[in-house]
């Protein structure tokens, strides 16, 4: 990845009374289960005068000040919350972490633009309400986003994309990569990794790919693995759930197959 590494630096405005500073308006770094959480303040809760330069200054102060409790090459999960970050800003954060022997791995965000920028840059992404720890799960089911998440990228090995709606990928999902969606999954390319549609338990969801070679398919609570012997010829295919489990049909034949399947359920 290449980007303009020059980042504007500005001195943050210090309030008259330091006690008035809200810790939730500051960049925080936490040690969590052997990893590092880099938590950005919510955009909705920060002063209107706060800028990217202020955020960048805070980040540098956190990295350069105090005791460095991390080991070299420790993975960092960036909790961006509702903050809008573009590719250049994400690269700047990754470069700053790299200077301190830290490696940005995953981005949590509630902003679609930030999710797209992070996935395009090659980071694992979870677009959902932000969490405060690696193991914490949101209470209750996440609201289904009506708009799909469109990504024009390759999901490489080690990457994971999570989204509380439908995911459309214009690219490939390589072995070792995974896509987890509460809605459908559409891969306009080769699907060779893991795909889990209907991740919140919806067996009506579908997985579609121009070339279906998955390591593993999941729809709702149903699981299927790729056959040991690949087919001699590939076609665009659709994976769906029947009373017998997950089945795969040619996309051209799917409407008829789906009709027969729904009839069998009735």
UniProtKB/TrEMBL annotation:
Q: Which UniProt keywords apply?
A: Cell cycle, Cell division, Septation
Return the similarity comment: Belongs to the MinC family.
Q: What role is this protein assigned?
A: Cell division inhibitor that blocks the formation of polar Z ring septums. Rapidly oscillates between the poles of the cell to destabilize FtsZ filaments that have formed before they mature into polar Z rings. Prevents FtsZ polymerization.
Subunit composition and interactions: Interacts with MinD and FtsZ.
Q: Which residues form the Septum formation inhibitor MinC C-terminal domain?
A: 151-246
InterPro entries recorded: CAP/MinC_C (IPR016098), MinC (IPR013033), MinC_C_sf (IPR036145), Septum_form_inhib_MinC_C (IPR005526)
Record-given protein name: Probable septum site-determining protein MinC
Q: Which domain of life is it from?
A: Bacteria
Q: Does the keyword Cell cycle apply?
A: yes
The family database entries (PANTHER family) matched by this protein are listed as: SEPTUM SITE-DETERMINING PROTEIN MINC
């Amino acid at each position: 990845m290449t980007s303009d590494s020059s980042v504007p630096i500005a001195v943050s405005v210090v309030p008259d009374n330091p006690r008035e500073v809200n810790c939730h308006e500051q960049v925080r770094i936490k040690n969590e289960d052997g990893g590092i959480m880099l938590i950005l303040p919510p955009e909705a809760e920060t002063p209107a005068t706060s800028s990217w330069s202020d955020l960048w200054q805070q980040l540098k102060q956190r990295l350069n000040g105090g005791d460095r409790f991390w080991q070299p090459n420790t993975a960092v999960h960036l909790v961006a919350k509702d903050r809008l970050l573009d590719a250049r800003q994400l690269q700047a954060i990754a470069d700053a972490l790299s200077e301190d022997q830290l490696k940005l791995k995953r981005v949590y965000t509630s902003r679609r633009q930030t999710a797209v920028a992070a996935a395009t840059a090659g980071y694992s992404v979870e677009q959902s309400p932000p969490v405060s720890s690696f193991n914490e799960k949101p209470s209750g089911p996440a609201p289904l986003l009506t708009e799909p998440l469109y990504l024009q990228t390759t999901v490489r090995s080690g990457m994971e994309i999570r989204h509380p709606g439908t995911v459309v990928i214009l690219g490939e999902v390589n072995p070792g990569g995974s896509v987890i969606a509460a809605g459908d999954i559409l891969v306009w390319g080769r699907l060779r990794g893991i795909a889990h549609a209907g991740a919140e338990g919806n067996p009506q969801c579908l997985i579609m790919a121009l070339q279906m070679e998955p390591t593993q398919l999941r729809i709702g609570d149903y699981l299927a693995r790729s056959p040991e012997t690949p087919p001699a010829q590939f076609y665009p295919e659709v994976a769906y759930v029947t009373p017998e489990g997950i089945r795969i049909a040619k996309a051209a034949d799917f409407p008829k197959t789906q009709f027969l399947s729904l009839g069998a359920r009735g």
